Input
Amino acid sequence: MNPLSYAYLIPLLPALGFLLNMLFGYRLGKRGGAYLSVGLLLTSTLLATALLLQVRQAAPVWDKAAVFEVLEAEEALPPLEEVLSEAKAMGASRERVEALEAEIALAEEKLTELEHEALIREPAADFPFSSETPWITIAGEQGIPFGFLLDPFAALMVFMVSLVSLLIHLFSVEYMAGEERYPTFFAYISLFAAAMLGMVMSRNLFLLLLFWELMGVMSYLLIGFFYKKVSAQQAMKKAFLVTKLADLGLLVGIFWIYRAFGTLDLLAIGELAPGLLAGSAGVATGIGLLLFLGAMGKSAQFPLHVWLLDAMEGPTPVSAMIHAATMVAAGVYLMARAYPILEMGNALPLIAWVGGLTALFAAALAPAFADIKKILAWSTVSQLGFMFLGLGAFGWIAAIFHLVAHAFFKSLLFLGSGSMIHGSGTQDIFAMNQLKKYMPSTRWTFIIGGLSLAGVFPFAGFWSKDEILLAVKNALSVNGGYGLLLLIGYAASFLTALYISRTYLIAFEQAKRPSPWQAAKWNQGGLGVLNMSAEDLAQDAEYDHHDTHDTPHESGWHITTALWVLAISATVFGIIGSPFTGNALQGFVYRGIVPELEPLSAQWLGFIVSTLVALSGITLAYLLYGNARLKLQAPQLLTQLLQQRFYLDQAYYFFAAGPLTRLAKPLAWFDRRIIDALVDFLAWLVAIVGDALRRVQTGRLEHYAWTMAAAAVVLLLALSFGGQL
Amino acid sequence: MLTLNHFLALGAILFAIGLYGLLSRRNLVAILMSVEILLNAILVNVVAIARFNDQAQGDVFALFIIAIAAAEVAVGLALFLNVFRLNGVATVDPLRRMKE
Output
C-alpha cells in the first residue's frame, strides 16, 4: 500500500481532536476529551510508524565504500562545468567547447554508473513518496499545488513529532487535571501537534508557511493559557510579536525563491538549486539569510531568543511541546530543507556563528536561574544553537540527528520538571526538598535526560553533539574561523554539563533551603523583562499562590509512563545514530553514509575530549552544589547581569517597544475619536429610525386587517388604471 | 347563458362580504370564517378562468388551496382555543398584549 493513501490522516486526526474537543469537549465527561485526543494521536503515531517502516522499505540502500567514489565523482563535476561556462564566455573555439561538453558527458555517465554500482538496493519506483493536486493556480505559471512529500527526513520527523506529542498528551491528562478549560487545553495542544505534523509533510514552501503560522497562533494561545495572569498575557504577546517579525523574513524569502525558481516545490528546488544558483551566490546568500531570519525567530536564536524564556508562562506540557516536538524544531527543519539553497551561498558561516554564540550565551545564563523551567528554557536555546552551529558547519545530517535526539531528551527533561513541579508544588529548585527520596521514577528518568543533555556516553546527546562538533572540526579546512567556534562549542558543552548537574543536585539531592535570591527576583517578571506594574505583579502572585509540599509525592501512571517511554526512546535513538550501528539513522536520512563520520578512528579523539569536558562540568557542579559544598560566591554584578539576561529585553523595550508605543498613541486617539465616533453615529441613526418605525406595530389585529385591505384596494386600483405593473 | 363575467362578479361579491366580515368582527372565529370566504372568492375566480380557458391547472390549484386552507383552519382554531383558555374570551382584544 502506498503510504500516501493514509499519510494525510496523520495530521488530520489531531486536527479532528481539536474540532471535537472544541465542540463537545465539555460534554464528554471529566477526562473524555483528553482521552479522545490521546487516542487520536495514538492512531497518528501508529500510522507514522507504518510510514517510517514503509519509507525505509522503499529507500535505497547504499554500499558504504562505493558511495565515497560517487561523492568524488560528484565533486569533480562542478569544476568542469565552470570551465565550460568560462570557455563559452571567453568565446572559445567550437572544438574546445565540444571537447569540454564531451568530457562533462563522460563524467556524468561515470557518475550514473558509479551510483548504480553503489546501490545495494534500488529505491522503489515511487520513492520519495510525493503527491500533488492543483490548489492555487496562477495563469501562465506553475502556481502553488497542494501536496505531501514523504522522504526519509520527513518520515523521521513525522515519527518523532507524533510520538513525542502523544507522550506529552498522555502526561497532560494527569498534569492538567483540575485546571479550568481542561478540554480547551487538549483542543489547542492537539492542533499544535497537527500543525507541526502537517508542516514536516508539506511538499511546498507555501503550505509549509501556512502550517508554520498555524503553529505560531497555537503557541500564542497556549503560552497565554492562564490568561488571567498578566505575565501570561504579556508573554503571549511577546512571543507572537517576536516570531511574527521573524516570519516577515521567511515570507520575503519565499517570494524571492518563487521569483528565482518559479516554483515553491521542495523537490524541484532541491534539484534546480545547484544549476540555477551556480554563479549567483548573492541570490543564494540573500534567500538563505531571509529564511534564517524566520528560523531565528521560531527557533529562538540570538537576538530573537527573548520570547522563549517568557513562554514558560504556559503550562509545563506546552513548554515541552514548544521546546521539543514542535515550534523550535520548525526553524531547524526549515533550514535543513532549504539546505540546497544554503549550500550555494555564503550564509552558512553566519548561521554557524549565530548558532555557536547562542549556544554559549544561553548555556552561560542557565546557571544563574532558580526556576527549573527557565533553566531548561535556556538549555533549549543553547541546544538549538548547537543545531544551527552544525548546519552552519556543513553538518546537515549532524544537525538533524541532534534535532531528533534533542526532541526526545528535552521533552523528557521538561516533562520531568513538570512531574517535579506537580509533586513539590514549586518551580524553585531550591524549594524542592530532596526529591530523590520521594520520586524514584522522575529521578531516574531525569538522570537519563540530564546525562543525555550533558553529553555523557552512551546517551543520545553524546552522539549527536559530538557529531556536530566533528562537523565543526572538519569545517576548519574550509575556513579557519571555525576553530574558534569549536572552542565555543566545547565551552558551551562544559556549561551544559554544569547547569544540568546543578539543577539535579539542588532539586533531588539537597534539602530545601532558602533560594539565594528572593522569591520576587527569580520570578523575573518584575525586573522589567516583561512590562508589568506593581499591581499586575501582586495580582499574579495571588493567582499563582500554591502550597509547597515539603514531602512531595511521585506522580501517577500517566506521567511516569510518559517519562519512561521518552527515556527509552531517547536512548534508543541515540544508539541508532551511534557508530555501534554504523550510524543507521544518518544513513537512512542521507545516503548510507555520512562523509564526516568516516572513518570511525577519526572520532575517538572527539569522543574522549567531549567526555572529559562533560565530566569536568559535572564534577564542578558536584563540588559547588553537592555535599562538598565548595564555597564559591559569584560576583554580585555577574549574577545580576545574568539574571537580567544581559539587559537585552530591556533594550528591546527601550529601543523598539517604547518608540512604537509613542507612535501608537496618536493613532489610538484617531481610532477612538474619529473612527469609533463614526461607528457610534451610525448606530445612533439606526436607533432613531427604528424608534420611529416601531410605532407602526400597534398590536391591534384590526389595524393590520385594515392595512391589508387598504393595500389590496391600492393594488386593485393600480392594476386597473396603471395597466401592467 | 353564463359568461365568465358572471363568475367574476360572484367572486367580487364574495370578496367584499369576506372583507367586510374581516374588518367588522371582533370574534376570532368570525374573522377566520371571513378569511375563508375571501379565499373562496379567489377560488371561484381561479376555477372560472381556468374553465373558460380550457385549462386544468386552475382546478388543481384550487384543490391544493382547499387542502392548505383546511390545515390552516385547524391551526387557527387550536390557537383560538388557547386564546380562549388564557383569556376567557375569543376576541381580538387580548391579542393586543402580543405587542409587548
